[in-house]
UniProtKB/TrEMBL annotation:
Is synthesized initially as an inactive proenzyme. Formation of the active enzyme involves a self-maturation process in which the active site pyruvoyl group is generated from an internal serine residue via an autocatalytic post-translational modification. Two non-identical subunits are generated from the proenzyme in this reaction, and the pyruvate is formed at the N-terminus of the alpha chain, which is derived from the carboxyl end of the proenzyme. The keyword Lyase applies. This is S-adenosylmethionine decarboxylase proenzyme. The keyword Zinc does not apply. GO terms for biological process: spermidine biosynthetic process. The active site is at S101, H106, C121. Its EC number is 4.1.1.50. The modification Pyruvic acid (Ser) is found at S101. Belongs to the prokaryotic AdoMetDC family. Type 1 subfamily. Heterotetramer of two alpha and two beta chains arranged as a dimer of alpha/beta heterodimers. InterPro entries: AdoMetDC_C, AdoMetDC_fam_prok, AdoMetDC_N, S-AdoMet_deCO2ase_core, S-AdoMet_deCOase_pro-enz.
Amino acid sequence: MNALAQLGMVSELPSNIQMSSAPSSSDEDRKDYFVERDGMKFAGTHLLVDLWDARNLDDPEKIDRTLCEAAVTAGATILHSHFHHFTPNGGVSGVVVLAESHISIHTWPERNFAAVDIFMCGACDPHLAIPVMQRLFQADRVVVDEQRRGRVA
C-alpha cells in the first residue's frame, strides 16, 4: 500500500461508487450479488487465462486500454487501473480494479506468454473479455480454466 500511496494512487477516503446516501438498511433489504446458474449459487466466475505464442506483451498503455475495453465488454464497472513496465525484458504487470472484482495480467515477452486473471461477480460475463484481449495479443493458443468462487452449499 505504501508504494501506491507514494504514487498518489491511494485515497484517504473510500470510493463513493459503492456507497449510498440512503440510511443503512437491514440485511433483508440488501441486494445479493451472488449468481445463480445451472442450479448453483456462487459469488462469481474466476477465469485463469494463459496466452501462449502471444504478441504485443510489452506495451503497458496498449495493455491498459485493451483490458479496460475487455472489462466494459464483459459488463463490468472500472474503478481504477495501474500497470508497470519491467526492464530489461519488457514484461508488464497490472490490474484493472472493478466494482465487480478485477482483471490482472503478467506478461513474459521473452517467452511470448501472458497470464491473465479475470474475476467477476454479479451479472458480468468474463468470457466476453477473452476475444477483446485476443485482438491485441493474437495468441496462437489460449488456455482457460474456470472456477466458480464462493459456492453456496
